[in-house]
Design brief:
The chain has about 250 residues and is of the alpha/beta class. It contains 5 helices and 11 strands, in the order ββββαβββαββαβαβα. Strands 1, 2, 3, 4, 5, 6, 7, 8, 9, 10 and 11 form an 11-stranded mixed β-sheet that branches. Helix 1 runs parallel beside helix 4 and helix 2 packs across helix 5.
């Protein structure tokens, strides 16, 4: 049975997108998740939405309890996760407002709990394909059908935050062939793989970080403005792709 977890915020917590809406609190061995789960059905599919940074966006990136969040969705029975995130663009062609479905990541975080297997049991999780290929393909198919500007097969780098990059760092990440940058995908994606949950990210480009000499360096206000103007794209995308997941033969390796 398919049950889809959505991690994000910005309109996705609107109970009107559900039928049979309800709120569920889940305790985990790792403490409390960032929020309760808003649950219900979308197009007949069971969905649970979790606000990564809290429903009032009060949790800074390094303070997110990623293990509790993933554990809560797994405990609720989620088989797939669609994650929404804001990213800075490291490439001219990835314009603010465009969506990106990355296929690779680079971890540049320093302080986060990145595994469930840090006591008693050693598990080495394969990570050559960190994002589910089938989910990525479905997201790209839906985006194309909806006329949403998007990019595939890109590399995302996650930094610790909460500060933004220096210009030197931004240029360094570009030299590493990174395409977009954020503060939230790692360790969320690897924890999902450890729990054998199919995971993919819909990343909204909100700015050009600070490498682009002709653009204003990123600010929190800039991110919020772009998300406000374009968040409906992510909602439309998820509403379109969710029923496709139920019908799709998902055979990718977890």
């Amino acid at each position: 049975m398919v049950k889809i977890g959505i991690i994000g915020g910005s309109g996705l917590d609107d109970p009107d997108i559900f039928t049979n809406a309800r709120e569920i609190e889940i305790d985990t061995p790792y403490g409390s998740p960032s929020s309760s789960l808003n649950c219900g059905k979308i197009a007949g599919v069971d969905v649970a939405i979790l606000a990564r940074h809290g429903k009032d966006h009060s949790i800074y990136p390094g303070g997110v309890n990623f293990r509790a969040n993933i554990w809560a969705l797994k405990e609720h029975g989620c088989t797939h996760i669609l994650a929404a995130t804001a990213v800075g663009s490291l490439r001219q062609e990835i314009e603010p407002g465009h969506l990106v479905f990355p296929d690779q990541f680079i971890d540049h975080t320093r302080k986060r709990a990145t595994t469930f297997f840090d006591k008693n049991e050693v598990v080495h999780t394969p990570m050559a394909e960190p994002f589910c290929p089938n989910l990525r393909a479905l997201l790209a198919e839906s985006a194309a059908g909806l006329g949403i500007s998007h990019h595939t097969d890109k590399t995302l780098i996650t930094i610790e935050g909460p500060r933004f990059s220096t210009k030197a760092e931004s240029h360094m990440f570009r030299s590493w062939n990174c395409d977009v940058i954020n503060m939230s995908t790692v360790p969320e994606v690897n924890l999902a793989r450890e729990q054998k949950i199919h995971y993919a990210t819909a990343a909204m480009s909100t700015d050009y970080d600070c490498w682009h000499e002709e653009e204003e360096p990123v600010s929190w206000e800039m991110i919020l403005e772009t998300m406000k103007n374009n968040s409906d794209q992510v909602i439309r995308l998820f509403m379109d792709v969710i029923p496709k997941i139920k019908k799709y033969a998902d055979v990718c390796s977890t």
